[in-house]
């Protein structure tokens, strides 16, 4: 998958953060791999794994990124699909009332890497 030119920020990792996963904030200004739909979200991790205490690089809201799908995502129009995090930080379609981390722009099957617009809001 081609790399997009996007803004990249970084924080110390509070847990292991795998590539292309949804990242949330936490205690002591650390970034954590998301483990549920609880936001708000900081962005999407880049293409490297960060261990606890390492620097995790992530693409913040307002930029294009690549995210790993956690379930089947079916895009039926040009608006994409609002997605939140599964237990492993992968993108899954968001239900009403959940925090949204990204708008997936193309259909995907589980574990596929897909393009997304990074956002952070509660649906």
Give a written overview of the molecule.
- By secondary structure, the protein is mostly beta strands.
- The protein folds into 2 domains: 52 residues, no CATH class; 58 residues, no CATH class.
- It has no helices and 10 strands.
- The strands form 2 sheets. A 5-stranded antiparallel beta sheet has the order 1-5-4-2-3, with no helix packed on it. Strands 6-10-9-7-8 form a 5-stranded antiparallel beta sheet, with no helix packed on it.
- Strand 9 and strand 10 form a beta hairpin.
- The mean pLDDT is 94.
Key words describing this protein structure:
123 residues; mainly beta; 2 domains; 5-stranded antiparallel β-sheet; globular
Computed structural class: mainly beta
Work out the number of β strands.
10
Note the run of SSEs as H and E.
EEEEEEEEEE
Q: What's the number of helices?
A: 0
Return residue spans where pLDDT drops below 50 for at least 5 consecutive residues: none
Number of domains: 2
The chain-level mean pLDDT equals: 94
Strand content: 35-45%
Helix content percent band: under 10%
Short description:
The protein has strands at residues 9-12, 22-25, 31-33, 41-45, 55-59, 64-68, 81-85, 91-93, 99-104, 113-122. It is an all-beta fold and 123 residues long.
Please give the structural blueprint.
Elements: E1 9-12, E2 22-25, E3 31-33, E4 41-45, E5 55-59, E6 64-68, E7 81-85, E8 91-93, E9 99-104, E10 113-122
Antiparallel strand pairs: 1-5, 2-3, 2-4, 4-5, 6-10, 7-8, 7-9, 9-10
């Amino acid at each position: 998958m081609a790399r997009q030119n996007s803004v990249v920020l970084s924080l110390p990792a509070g847990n292991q953060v795998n590539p292309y996963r949804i990242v949330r904030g936490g205690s002591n200004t650390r970034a954590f791999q998301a483990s549920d739909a609880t936001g708000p979200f900081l962005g999407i991790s880049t293409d490297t794994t960060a261990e606890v205490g390492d620097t995790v690089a992530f693409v913040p809201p307002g930029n294009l990124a690549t995210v790993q799908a956690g379930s089947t995502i079916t895009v039926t129009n040009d608006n994409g699909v609002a997605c939140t995090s599964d237990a492993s930080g992968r993108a899954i379609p968001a239900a009403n009332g959940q925090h949204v981390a990204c708008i997936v722009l193309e259909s995907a099957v589980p574990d596929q890497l897909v393009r997304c617009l990074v956002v952070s809001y509660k649906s």
